């Protein structure tokens, strides 16, 4: 069996192939964007489309990892079915899904597969020119099932909350998955106050998407923390076979387990993700996780969005820097940010540099691209 390319643009264009995937009558598919020939060709070359693949593989999903080189998680039909079944069990029953993100990423593919597994054709928002929250109400009205679900990233949720009609429409969904990146506490609180039935998800391409919902693993999913760094290791029925063309990758060294690059805590079986170990900042001999600092800074008045990243420092080795998208008209200073961090964490974690930007660069659905951000501010300010 060879790995075959599956160009996806609309739900309708992919339904026959995805239905065959669930039936077990399809080849192994590599989803690629139908309208981006360059990206499709890059993925096809990097993941060896058209060449033999493990017979158990049903879907190869390109990762949006920090290296920029897609590895390609090989997911089985059983992985995808377990993910869909676990999601519907956690949300209260099968339902129809609205696709509101790029369809070739794992989150987009899973939205379509969950809907098909529940016996419903998924609905779709056209996000090729950006996410328009005003279209949510009409999309919800087009859906026909008793239970209706949607999956969004935090930046989309922020846009929804800025539009009253969109907020009311989102609150009519029976479940709203929020994943792809950490959701700031103020955004989460605003969503819950508006009656939105949001569920924070944690997972990745290697686990067929989200496998931990609001800190609780889906049925059959196992979570453990390894070593003094408290690295998250995931196991269970949603874990991929491994990486395409990287059979010896250490992340899959333990059969049936995936060793993430994330750190976390476990309290009474509830997982909290504290940050990415491969993005940790080593400053003055201490280690700072950007996501921990961002969680504090996101609550500072005047901060709409924030990203924390490392910069070289002759004395400290690295220093903590922050890029902020300010609320229009707000004044945000480095002194204000430092005071907030020092009050909740430690002065070592406080940013020593502040950059005000119009938007934050992202990779994949919702994830901040810290490398691109560091290069961006260096080019602007050098």
From TrEMBL:
EC number per UniProt: 6.2.1.26
Keyword Ligase tagged: yes
Gene Ontology terms, MF aspect: medium-chain fatty acid-CoA ligase activity; o-succinylbenzoate-CoA ligase activity
Keywords (A to Z) from UniProt: Ligase
Domain annotation AMP-dependent synthetase/ligase: ranges: 52-243
Broad EC category: ligase
Any one GO biological process: fatty acid metabolic process
Similarity field: Belongs to the ATP-dependent AMP-binding enzyme family.
Protein name (record): O-succinylbenzoate--CoA ligase
Source organism of the structure: Tsukamurella sputi
């Amino acid at each position: 069996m060879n790995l075959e390319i599956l160009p996806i643009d609309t739900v309708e264009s992919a339904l026959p192939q995805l239905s065959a995937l669930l039936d077990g009558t399809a080849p192994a598919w590599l989803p690629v964007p139908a309208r981006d020939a360059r990206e499709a060709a890059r993925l096809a070359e990097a993941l060896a489309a058209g060449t033999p693949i493990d017979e158990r593989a049903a879907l190869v999903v390109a990762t949006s990892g920090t290296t920029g080189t897609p590895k390609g998680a090989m997911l089985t039909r059983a992985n995808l079915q377990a993910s869909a079944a676990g999601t519907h069990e956690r949300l209260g029953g099968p339902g129809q899904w609205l696709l509101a993100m790029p369809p070739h990423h794992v989150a987009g593919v899973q939205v379509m597969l969950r809907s098909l597994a529940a016996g419903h054709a998924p609905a779709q928002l056209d996000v090729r020119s950006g996410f328009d929250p005003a279209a949510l109400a009409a999309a919800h009205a087009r859906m026909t099932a008793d239970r209706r679900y949607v999956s969004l990233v935090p930046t989309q949720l922020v846009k929804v909350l800025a539009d009253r009609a969109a907020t009311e429409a989102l609150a009519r969904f029976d479940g709203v998955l929020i994943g792809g990146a950490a959701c700031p506490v103020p955004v989460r609180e605003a969503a819950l106050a508006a009656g939105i039935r949001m569920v924070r998800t944690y997972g990745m391409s290697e686990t067929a998407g989200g496998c931990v919902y609001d800190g609780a693993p889906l049925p059959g999913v196992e979570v453990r923390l390894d070593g003094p760094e408290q690295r998250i290791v995931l196991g269970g029925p949603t874990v991929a076979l491994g990486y395409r063309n990287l059979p010896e990758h250490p992340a899959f060294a333990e059969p049936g387990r995936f060793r993430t690059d994330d750190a976390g805590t476990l309290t009474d079986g509830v997982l909290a993700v504290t940050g990415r170990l491969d993005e940790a900042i080593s400053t003055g001999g201490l280690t700072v996780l950007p996501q921990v600092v961002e969680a504090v800074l996101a609550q500072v008045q005047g901060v709409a969005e924030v990203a924390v990243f490392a910069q070289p420092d002759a004395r400290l080795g690295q220093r903590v820097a922050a890029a902020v998208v300010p609320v229009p008209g707000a004044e945000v200073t480095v002194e204000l940010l430092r005071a907030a961090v020092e009050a909740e964490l430690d002065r070592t974690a406080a940013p020593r540099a502040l950059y005000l930007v119009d938007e934050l660069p992202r990779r994949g659905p919702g994830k901040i691209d810290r490398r691109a951000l560091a290069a961006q501010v260096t080019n602007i300010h050098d």
